[in-house]
């Protein structure tokens, strides 16, 4: 609820110290609620996160270990030691990492530390998709047809697939967030896809058990928030629409679901799907905040199927908090997680729950949509959250934060609340436009384009929408923006730097006046920008309407004022000011690639670990053929051959590679040679005239 909720529970037996076993925006969000409740917060961090925002905001912090998650955030013994060291009586796990780890829940129980989450019994039943599906089906909750028997190897799954029918979906039994899920259209694709799915499941969750489900085409993804205490009270807090997904990862989430809002019997369906979620939670004696996820047919919304239960807080929980009212007050789900874990009863029933307006959330990632959503790493040179009526930002970054390759690339969530859906959409778009993140690539521009789509505006959504929509090209800077960027660069340049005293920064020289031209490389494209003679360094760069054309400009430290990041209404880019030497090198590299017919070197786009090598040194490869895969930021990135030829592989599975490291080289196929006889024969055969040597 609101801050008034603390006053309503003066005798609540809450904890004195809570350790937050997570990082990023969720750790910051939990710490702020703990502070409001007067609870001392303890952050944990890896060596790579020593200066992270959640560490700075907590009352105390404990280092868990090296950057690798397995040696820090996923190290159960290290987290339990941190609890003892800091005097924490309870642990809030956030989401991801150890939030649904059965061994972690049991370790805390053995140590006498309260887990702010469900019991080990609930996690055990719902943490495994096969077990969860079979369990809820026995309690009357509808499930998707499929095969969910533990211990099935690839051969058994292939044999059972015909009974499920194609297309089907391969899902890892452990884990969540869509990672490791693969759609299979035909029996021929199944064996290879099973191998990939097992490898991803094993590396991500430590468990390669798989299940098969019938693929419901163009479904809606609707989930229900549940809340339960230790006194037998279980309620639901309405539903969320999470259908806008990419690779099974949610991108936009909202509450309530547009589908139900548009139907005459939407209230009835909401009641039935809410009751099914409550039944699923009660069947495992659930305690705390959790989410029950359903697939809903767009054509028949009255038919819904249980997918899974997440026994933790969800990334998208803020949209529920923004619309749900309990006896007219907002609800804070983290606060109620703490209160329930401390033994407090809810004190309100289903009849007290109401909905107010509409809320929509967009996930801001450090990634480049124009490059296949490749994650981006670097230092945040400037970060500014959006502000305004109905706007909320849950962020894990600040100016100076480091985005590393070790963890998920999500930076923040921007949430907008409005009286209705159109107002919420408009507010969210404006908030994304005013959000500034410079230093890494982001998906801000992509999110704005997605929200502007006609079907999204109308609420016509399904889980395959983004796949059909595709990746929108990144826009090019306008002439006015280029002029403004050039002027900003010149303003950074010391007077007469790198030139004789006869030159000045604005292009003036003795005897004549020459217009200054700057070569700017933006997103790999070269722009020759010629400034007008009157342009002076530091002069305001405005378009005809008087609006600054480069509202965000941050020089990159250590580049001598030759590189910067720019941002404008969601668009952002890395800019290099190229001197003559850099231009020559760029031109020579272009010539080399053109002569080879492509780039002979395959380079890792970011630091990561080689997880598979698909070819061997000496093999012949075709242009575009995958040669290996590198895993970074919880994603697997295939690297391909730039041209046809003989490949040499420079790495092995398990190797760590740096950004830009050459992992494979292709020796191009030789050009076919044609001798004179072949030429003559070919010409004769074609009837073309031939030249013959004169005879003596």
Description:
- The chain has 20 helices and 41 strands.
- It has 696 residues and is α+β, with helices and mostly antiparallel strands.
- The strands form eleven sheets. Strands 14-13-10-11-12-18-25-23 form an eight-stranded antiparallel β-sheet.
- β11 and β12 form a beta hairpin.
- The protein is globular, with a radius of gyration of 29 Å.
Concise synopsis of the structure shown:
The chain has 696 residues and is an alpha+beta fold.
Helix-strand layout with pairing:
Blueprint (H helix, E strand, L loop, with lengths): L3 H5 L8 E4 L3 H13 L3 E7 L6 H5 L2 E6 L10 H11 L3 E3 L9 H10 L2 E2 L4 H7 L2 H9 L8 E2 L6 H11 L3 E5 L9 E3 L5 H16 L4 E5 L4 E10 L5 E13 L2 E7 L2 H4 L4 H17 L5 E10 L6 E7 L6 H7 E3 L2 E2 L2 H9 L11 E3 L2 E8 L1 E2 L5 E2 L2 E2 L2 E3 L6 E5 L6 E2 L6 E9 L2 H14 L1 E3 L5 H9 L1 H5 L6 H5 L9 H14 L15 E2 L2 E2 L3 E6 L2 E6 L21 E4 L7 E6 L2 E8 L1 H17 L4 E3 L4 E6 L6 E2 L4 E7 L2 E6 L4 E5 L6 E2 L4 E7 L7 H11 L10
Parallel strand pairs: 1-2, 1-4, 2-3, 4-5
Antiparallel strand pairs: 6-9, 7-8, 7-9, 10-11, 10-13, 11-12, 12-18, 13-14, 15-16, 15-17, 18-25, 19-20, 21-24, 22-26, 23-25, 27-28, 29-30, 29-33, 31-32, 32-33, 34-41, 35-37, 35-40, 36-39, 37-38, 39-41
Helix pairs in contact: 14-15
């Amino acid at each position: 609820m609101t801050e008034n909720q603390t006053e309503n529970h003066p005798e609540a037996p809450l904890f004195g110290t809570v350790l937050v076993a997570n990082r990023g925006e969720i750790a910051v969000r939990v710490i702020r609620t703990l502070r409001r409740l007067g609870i001392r917060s303890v952050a944990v961090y890896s060596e790579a996160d020593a200066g992270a925002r959640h560490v700075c905001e907590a009352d105390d912090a404990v280092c868990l270990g090296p950057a690798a998650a397995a040696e820090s955030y996923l190290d159960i013994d290290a987290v339990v030691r941190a609890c003892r060291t800091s005097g924490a009586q309870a642990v809030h796990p956030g989401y991801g990492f150890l939030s649904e780890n059965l061994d972690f829940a049991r370790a805390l129980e053995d140590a006498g530390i309260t887990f702010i989450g469900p019991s080990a019994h609930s996690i055990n039943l719902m943490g495994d998709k096969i077990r969860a599906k079979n369990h809820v089906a026995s309690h009357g909750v509808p499930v998707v047809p499929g095969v969910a028997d533990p211990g099935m190897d690839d051969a058994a799954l292939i044999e059972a697939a015909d009974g499920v029918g194609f297309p089907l979906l391969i899902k890892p039994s452990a884990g969540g967030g869509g990672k490791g899920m693969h759609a299979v259209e035909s029996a021929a694709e199944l064996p290879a896809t099973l191998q990939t799915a097992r490898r991803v499941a094993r590396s991500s969750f430590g468990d390669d058990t798989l299940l098969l489900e019938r693929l419901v085409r163009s479904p809606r993804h609707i989930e229900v928030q549940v809340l339960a205490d230790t006194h037998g009270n279980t309620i639901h807090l309405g539903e969320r629409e999470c259908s806008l997904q990419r690779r099974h990862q949610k991108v936009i989430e909202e509450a309530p679901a547009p589908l139900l809002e548009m139907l005459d019997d939407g209230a009835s369906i909401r009641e039935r799907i809410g009751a099914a979620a409550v039944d699923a939670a009660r069947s495992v004696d659930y305690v705390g905040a959790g989410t029950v996820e359903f697939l809903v047919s767009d054509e028949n919304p009255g038919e819904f199927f249980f997918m899974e239960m997440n026994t933790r807080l969800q990334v998208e929980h803020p949209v529920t908090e923004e619309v749900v009212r309990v006896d007219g007050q907002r609800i804070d789900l983290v606060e109620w997680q703490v209160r329930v874990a401390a033994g407090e009863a809810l004190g309100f029933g289903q009849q007290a729950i109401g909905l107010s307006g509409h809320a929509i959330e967009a996930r801001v990632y450090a990634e480049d949509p124009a490059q296949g959503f490749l994650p981006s790493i670097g230092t945040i040179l400037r970060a500014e959250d959006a502000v305004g009526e109905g706007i909320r930002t849950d962020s894990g970054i600040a100016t100076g934060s480091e985005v590393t390759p070790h963890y998920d690339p999500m930076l923040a969530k921007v949430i907008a609340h409005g009286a209705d859906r159109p107002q919420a959409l408009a507010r969210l778009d404006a908030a994304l436009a005013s959000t500034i993140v410079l230093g890494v690539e982001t998906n801000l521009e992509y999110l704005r384009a997605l929200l502007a789509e006609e079907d999204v505006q109308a609420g016509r959504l399904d889980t395959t929408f983004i796949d059909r929509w595709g990746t929108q090209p990144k826009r090019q800077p306008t002439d006015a923006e280029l002029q403004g960027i050039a002027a900003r660069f010149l303003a950074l340049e010391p007077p007469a730097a790198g030139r004789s005293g006869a030159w000045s920064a604005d292009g003036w020289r003795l005897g004549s006046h020459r217009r200054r031209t700057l070569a700017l490389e933006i997103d790999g494209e070269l722009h020759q920008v010629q400034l007008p003679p009157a342009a002076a360094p530091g002069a305001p760069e405005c378009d005809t309407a008087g609006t600054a054309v480069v509202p965000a400009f941050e020089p990159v430290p250590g580049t001598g004022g030759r590189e910067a990041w720019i941002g404008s209404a969601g668009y952002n880019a890395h800019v290099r000011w190229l001197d003559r030497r850099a231009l020559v090198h760029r031109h020579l590299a272009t010539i080399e690639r053109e002569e080879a017919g492509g780039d002979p070197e395959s380079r890792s786009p970011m630091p990561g670990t080689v997880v598979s090598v698909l070819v061997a040194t000496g093999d012949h490869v075709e242009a575009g053929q995958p040669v290996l895969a590198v895993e970074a930021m919880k994603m697997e990135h295939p690297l391909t051959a730039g041209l046809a030829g003989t490949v040499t592989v420079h790495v092995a599975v398990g190797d760590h590679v740096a950004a830009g490291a050459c992992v494979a080289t292709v020796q191009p196929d030789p050009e076919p040679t044609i001798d004179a006889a072949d030429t003559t024969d070919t010409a004769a055969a074609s009837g073309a005239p031939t030249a013959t040597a004169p005879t003596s």
